[in-house]
Amino acid sequence: MQPEGKNASGYDYIIVGSGSAGSLLANRLSANPDHRILVLEAGGSDRNFWLKLPVGYFRTIYDERFARHFDTEPGEGTGGRNIVWPRGRVIGGSSSINGLIFIRGQHEDFDDWDRLGAKGWRYSDVLPFFRRLENYRGGENQFRGKLGEMAVTDLRNDHPYCEAWVKAAQEYGLPFNPDFNAETTYGAGAYQLSINGRWRSSAAAAFLKPARARPNLTVLTGTHTTRVLFDGKRATGVEWVETGQIRQAVARREVILSAGGIQSPQILQLSGIGPADLLAEHNIPLVADAPGVGRNLQDHYQMRTIVRLKAKKSVNNEIRNPVKLAQWGLQWLFNASGPLTVGAGQVGGAACTKYAENGRPDVQFNVMPLSVDKPGTPLHDYPGFTASVWQCHPKSRGTLKIKSTDPFEQPHIDPNYFGERRDRDVIVEGVKMLREIYAQPAFRDLWDVEVIPGKEFQSDDQLWDKIRHGGGTVFHCVGTCRMGTDDNAVVDPNLKVHDVEGLRVIDASVMPQITSANTNAPTLMIAEKGANAVIGSSGQGAG
C-alpha cells in the first residue's frame, strides 16, 4: 500500500530523529535546493533556558519534558539493579541534554572499526570529517578544524583543586595532555566542551537551526515514528503518530534512521527488519531477516570515587553561597566563563592498567570539584570532590529487542554489564589508580575522608562488590545496528541497511565497537561521513 495522508506528496529524504546525527544530516542534505527534506522528531522545541545554559544539563538530563527514560534489565553485574538510560526527546536529541564533553576517542578506535569490517572507517579516513564539522576555538592544525559549525572550546573554568588533581596525576606517572583530540588521549588534562559563547552548542544550534530557514527543509515535532514503509524490499516512506493520528510521508530517494542506539533498532524491528524468530513471535511481516538488529549493545559503565575536602572549596559549598552564585553569574555574563560554563567533567584523562594492550589506554577518568548522587539531585552537604572511571574497551555485549508491536512501549534492554570477567578486572584497577592519584603529594593534603568506595573496601573482591552495586551509566549506548559486511552486520560501510533498498541508519548505533571516550563527537563524524555517502550516491557529487 502506498503512503497516504499528510505530506503524502513526498520528500526526497526522510530523516527520523533530530539529534546529533539527524541535525547534521538535515543541514548537509538540505544544502541542495533540489532536495526536499523531512525531519521527524518525537520531542518538542529546545527553546528552554536550561537547555541552552551549559551547566543546565544537570537539570535537564532527567527531566521528562526533554528526555525519555529507558529502563534496563537488572543484572548480576549491577548487583540486581536496573539502570535508567535517559535519551534526548527534544529538538537536538541527546546533544541538547548531554554533558558537553567533546572528545573523539583513540585513533585506534577507528582502525578497529575497519578491522571489524567497516572498511573505509580507519582514523585516517574519518579525520577529514571530524575536522570538517568542528570550529575549534584553539585554532586549526593537522588534527583540528576551524571552519565547521560545531563550536568547540577549551575549559573556561579554573578550579584550584582540579589543577591539583592534574598535577597529582602527573606525579602518579601520567603525562600532561594539552589536547585529547590531537595525537593521543593518553595522559591528564582539561576537557574541551561543545560551547559557543555563553551557550551550549548542541547539534540543533550548530546545524539544524541555520538550515531551518531553507524552504526545502521541513521539521515536524511531536511525531513518534512507528515504522518504515516498504514496497517489497524498497523503503518508500515512514509512518508516525502525531496528536493521536497516524500520518505517513513518501521518501522518493531514501529513509534515514537517526533515532539512536535504542530506537533505530526498535524501529527496524517494528518495520520487519530483524531476527526472523523475534518478528514471527510478534506476527510482524518479514522484510529482511537481520539477526544483528538489536545485538552488539555496548555502553560505558562508570564508577565514582568521592573524597571529602578539608576546606570548603567544593562547588557543593559554593552553590549555597549567594555571593558566589552572583560571581558565577557575572563571570558567565561578561566573560562567558566560570562554573556555569562547565560540562559533566572539567579535567581527566586516560591511563593504562596492567591489562592494557599495546600501550593503549584502557580506562578513562572524569573529574569534578563537587559530589552528587546523580544529576538533578542536590549536591552533597559536605565539601565533596569526585573522580570517576570507566573502561575504554568493554568486552561485554548486550541485546535489545521489542516487547510488542506497540511503538510506544520501550524495548527489552539487557546491557549485560560485566558479562566478561576482563571488564570487572579493568574497572577495579581503575578505581585503585584513582586512589593512588589522590595519595600523590599535590593532592593528598587536600582531603581527609574517602566517602566512596570507603576505606573499608580494600580487596579486589570488596571493590568489585562496591562497583557493581554503586556504579552507573554515562549514557553512551551504541552498536545495535552494527556496520560491517558479515551476516550479522546490519548496515554496510556506506550505512545502507543490508538486503533492502532506500534505507540507511546513520547514528551511534552503527558503531562496530564503542569508542574509548564520550560518544557525541564520533556520532557527529558518522553523520558527516554518512551525509557525504548519501550526497555522493544522489548523483550530486560529494559535499
Biggest β-sheet strands, sense, barrel: 7 strands, mixed
Mean pLDDT: 96
| CATH architectural arrangement of the largest domain | 3-Layer(bba) Sandwich
Query: What is the number of domains?
Result: 2
**What share of the residues lie within helices?**
25-40%
CATH superfamily of the largest domain: FAD/NAD(P)-binding domain
Quickly name the level 1 CATH class of the largest domain: Alpha Beta
Write structural notes for this entry.
The chain has about 550 residues and is an alpha/beta fold. It has 2 domains: about 1-55 and about 85-150 and about 195-290 and about 480-540, 3-Layer(bba) Sandwich (FAD/NAD(P)-binding domain); about 155-190 and about 300-395 and about 415-475, Cholesterol Oxidase, domain 2 (2-Layer Sandwich), CATH 3.30.410. The chain has helices at about 20-30, 50, 55-60, 105-115, 125-135, 160-170, 205-210, 260-270, 275-280, 315-320, 320-335, 420-440, 460-470, 520-535, and strands spanning about 10-15, 35-40, 65-70, 85-90, 135, 150, 185-190, 195, 200, 215-220, 225-230, 235-240, 245-255, 275, 290, 300-310, 345-350, 365-370, 385-390, 400, 410-415, 445-450, 470-475, 505. Strands 1, 2, 10, 11, 12, 13 and 24 form a 7-stranded mixed beta sheet that branches. Strands 7, 16, 17, 18, 19, 22 and 23 form a 7-stranded antiparallel beta sheet that branches. Strand 11 and strand 12 (about 235-240) form a beta hairpin. Helix 1 (about 20-30) runs parallel beside helix 14 (about 520-535). The longest helix has 18 residues, at about 420-440. The protein is globular, with a radius of gyration of 23 Å. The model is unreliable at about 1-10 (pLDDT under 50).
